[in-house]
Design a protein that fits this description.
Layout lengths: L3 H14 L4 H11 L13 H10 L6 H12 L1 H8 L4 E5 L6 H8 L5 E6 L2 H14 L4 E2 L2 E2 L18 E5 L9 H14 L4 E7 L4 H7 L6 H17 L8 E8 L4 E8 L3 E5 L2 E5 L4 E8 L3 H10 L3 E7 L5 E7 L5
Parallel strand pairs: 1-2, 1-5, 2-3, 2-4, 5-6
Antiparallel strand pairs: 6-13, 7-8, 8-11, 9-10, 12-13
Helix pairs in contact: 3-10
Length: about 325
Amino acid sequence: MGNPAFNLHAFRTAQRAAPLSNFGRELFAGLSRGARSIPPKFFYDVAGSALFDRICELPEYYPTRTELRILTECASEIAAQIGPKAEIIEFGAGSLTKVRLLLDALDAPKRYVPIDISGEHLEAAAQRLRDDYPRLAVQPLVADYTMPLVLPARGEGMGQRVGFFPGSTLGNFSPDEALAFLQLAQRLLRGGGLLLGVDLVKDPALLHAAYNDAQGVTAAFNLNLLRRANAELDTDFDLDGFTHAAFYNAPLRRIEMHLVSRRAQTVTLDGQRFAFDEGETIHTENSHKFTAEGLRALAVKAGFRPAAVWTDPERLFSVHWLQSPAAQ
């Protein structure tokens, strides 16, 4: 047998020499900042995607059921805006639940391109959709939709190219990032439009309950980031050493989610040790809330022409139809 200490050292050296994944690079950068953070897009590995599906079914989590209600009750009006033979591009597609309401309402949609960063979860959901909609071309695209994208070439006889971005995912971006995404979408969708769902400003008590559910599913979703890092990046986060915290930052109109260190501790990533004080946090997500008027103003700034807006009677949530002018 060889020298165990030498073998262990060689193994760790080889690990450090291997290039980090995109997740590893962004986590390393986030832990190196004074105010530590992890981009929320890394929530959605297979386990994280499944946990988010559970969040959407929680009694406290109003956004999903409210948006589904709007899409159901206003389906014919939405379909009239989109028109026949449409091509639907869904950004951050997840489990492909909401798009079914849209597909059922549309007149002979031709193609559906779901885009998501979690490839395994996306392909499984896409196959279920193919089984249920045999006349629809389903072409999943594994990609980060916040980056420049190459979409499939337009097919002959297709109607409008329509983006679908439900779930108020736009609220996870900073204001500058939200504008940049809308500008990117506007260029991709020229001559078509974007169907966008965003959460509205409301009673902070409702917001607090939605992100601090009694069953602890949101806490598990947040902590899954650390479990994923341990599994994929060989970090040594103690999952019992961090706790979930979510609160409404009223001046910035956003929910903030953090992972709070319960004690002084050290975490290792790629050979670098990162010290945490008791109470120090990793900022994992923002969820900005909008007014309908504020969203429309942002859309205009991005080059869209705001058209119809649909809300529920309690004005908890809104769905917007934003037209993208054809290129001159």
